[in-house]
Write a structure and sequence with these properties.
The protein is α/β, with parallel strands linked by helices. It has 10 helices and 6 strands, in the order E-H-E-H-E-H-E-H-E-H-E-H-H-H-H-H.
């Protein structure tokens, strides 16, 4: 059972999300918060696994809250939700460790799947946002520094990352251990000077996304 915390300053939005998601057998909504600070204060008591985080909120917005939560509670996955594709906010949230981004009008079934996915370690980018994020992270059509140093196997792994595969799925596809894939990912991040798997997914999506 995935413990879920809903964070949004609009009570109507929280009620709507709660009504939709409580029907999912794998999800348990453990609490709600109207701003980022309230969410942070409630974490020790509620102990959520995943947080659905709104962006624009009073007192503390979703970007600031994401930064604080990922630093203090790195085990918690944050999925950012908003009503519009605000590139600047999305970039900041991903930079601070959000596991993904979706629009609030995402169908409930897809949202539930996204929650389960980020809980398992996947990265979730809303439709069409991979290209936007790549541009915001200054990823051009030319290979980033360090790209030429990647081995054929590392390129193969990045292609699977672009398709949304988890480390376990990549390991199964390439007949390698999950530990080996983790080691490869560490080397890829170092070679390309990327912060984490989320940024790797964005870079990979910009090059291989059309192969899906």
């Amino acid at each position: 059972m995935i413990r879920l915390l809903l964070v949004d300053d609009e009570n109507l939005i929280r009620r709507g999300l709660k009504a939709l998601l409580k029907l999912e057998k794998d999800l348990e909504i453990v609490g709600e918060a109207e701003n980022g600070q309230t969410a942070i204060d409630s974490i020790p008591t509620l102990q959520p696994d995943v947080i659905l985080m709104d962006i624009r909120m009073p007192i503390m917005d979703g970007v600031a809250a994401t930064k604080e939560i990922t630093k203090a509670f790195p085990q918690i996955k944050i999925l950012v939700l908003t009503t519009f594709a605000d590139e600047d906010y999305v970039t900041q949230a991903l930079h601070y460790g959000a596991a993904g981004y979706l629009l609030k009008d995402t169908p409930s079934e897809e949202l539930a799947q996204a929650i389960c996915s980020v809980h398992k370690g996947y990265t979730q980018l809303g439709p069409g946002l991979g290209k936007v994020m790549a541009q915001k992270l200054s990823v051009s059509k030319s290979p980033p520094p360090g790209w030429d140093e990647l081995t054929a196997r590392e390129i193969e792994i990045l292609q699977l990352v672009a398709k949304g595969s988890s480390n376990r799925e990549i390991a199964e596809a390439l007949y390698l251990s999950e530990k080996t894939i983790k080691n490869y990912m560490t080397r890829i991040l170092n070679r390309l000077d990327l912060r984490d798997r989320t940024q790797a997914a964005i870079v990979a999506n910009s090059f291989f996304g059309n192969e899906r």
